[in-house]
Amino acid sequence: MTNSMSVSAPVATAEALYNLPATLFPFATDKSATWWYTTAAILLGLLALEQTVYRYKKGHLPGDPWTIPIIGKFADSMKPTMENYMKQWNSGALSALSVFNIFIVMSSTTDYSRKILNSPTYAEPCLVYSAKVILNPRNWVFLTGKEHVDYRRVLNLLFTRKAIGLYVGIEDAITRKHFAQWMKDREGKGAMPIMMPSRYLNMDTSLRVFCGDHIPDHATKEISDKYWAVTQALELVNFPFAIPGTKVYKAKQAAKVAMDWLELAAHNSKAAIAKGAEPACLIDEWMYLISQPDYKGRNDFSDHEIAMVVFSFLFASQDAMSSGLIYGFQHLVDHPEILAKVREEQERVRQGNFEAPLTLELMDQMPYLQAVVKESLRVKPPVTMVPYKTTKAFPISDHYTVPANSMVIPSFYNALHDADVFPRPDRFDPDRWLDPNSSANTNPKNYLVWGSGPHRCIAVEYASINIALVLATAAVMFDWEHEITPLSNEVEIIATLFPKDGCKLKLTPRTHT
Ligand code: HEM
């Protein structure tokens, strides 16, 4: 460690405790008093050790000088707020805290955050504490180094342009189906939050893109209903035991249900492709690819392994996509001049034919819509940070080394709100992406919405296109009105960012002349 400092922790010696007056333990006999003194001495010694270790690891970094015994900042991590995050980030480029004796270093600058993401020999993603329990420790996302690179090379084939073209057709159909249902549910009613309907739409889209018709409708409904338990367990550090009644336990049960259905999808897809069916979803695409004579890689994926991969995609997508979509709606409805431009582009590219399904080729011709999505994700990045873990002492700067086995958390928010790169950073301004020479476009290193390095989001194009497609469809099908409440501009953090009131929209069918 390069950080050296003198540590002044509270020191409680056993001797001092033995000298405490016996009146402190009035109920104690001589023998039991000795027991009490010894136990108290050990406890106080452990607490002192905890503080000493925390202060030693923290070195000169900003952060609380003492950590709350045992739990540290557990309460804050259970109810995270942007204000608390900002306070932590603003305290320094690197700052320290501790939760349940997990020592955590947060980085707030673009350079430190990128360094963490791009230093696989020192740090690897650990996601949140509950992720391993929910996803299964054997899930591919926990692979590192060459094993991770090799596995990901196969999965990259599921997000080629050809594959995304197939998924766009599915997204279009599912979006229209859900919007028809939204209309029925909202008939004669005023503004309603779009939070939960958007989550259902996203889950249905994901499951149909990933599994096609290899699972029944009631399975997508069941997975959707239960999935909220997974979202709720995604706190930075949870209660450490997954015992009945805890959030992590409930999430694990929900994951089991999803995994059973996903294994069925894998089984059915294998059978369909073996019979010569054309790929109609992501698993089909995968099974088709590995059955080709010129394919050289692994082809012995079990149903369980396929299901784990698909579950990792659901896990990575559901909350981030929902947040991205809801803020996409909110940004557009609050900027009618920008929504009008989106509509103009839709009219031009689709030549007024809004019944024809969207295709990847049509989506390519919508640069304004793409800029809208990119900007919306910048202003409110669904993922504000990703927890990593140091596998060995990590000399992150000339003045500080993050100890081995610490959590180290790169923040994306500050990079995305850097006023030098994004003037008036809180302003929703898609135009900043339309000029190739703008500071936004010439500083791509700041655009950390998708992370960076070996674990950068595998589904960047797929996710961006999906959000764009849903917004475009809603823009041409509905007139939107936002019921602004005192909570509309307050941010709720439930794994990702959401407007606290769920974005209350009144949608009425739009008539085209
Ligand atoms: C708006 C939507 C999304 C956002 C903002 C987002 C963002 C991210 C971020 C920040 C990371 C971590 C990157 C890093 O550690 O450097 C990540 C990883 C990942 N994302 Fe996404 N994501 C989104 C949608 C999706 C979707 C739809 C899928 C799947 C279909 C997906 C699959 C993954 C996977 C598998 C990883 C882990 C990659 C690896 O470890 O190699 N994401 N995403």
Automatic annotation (TrEMBL):
Sequence intervals crossing the membrane: 33-49, 89-106
GO BP annotations, alphabetical order: sterol metabolic process
UniProt binding sites for heme: C457
Keyword Ribonucleoprotein: no
MF terms in GO: heme binding; iron ion binding; monooxygenase activity; oxidoreductase activity, acting on paired donors, with incorporation or reduction of molecular oxygen
Similarity section: Belongs to the cytochrome P450 family.
Protein name: Cytochrome P450
Organism lineage string: Eukaryota, Fungi, Dikarya, Basidiomycota, Agaricomycotina
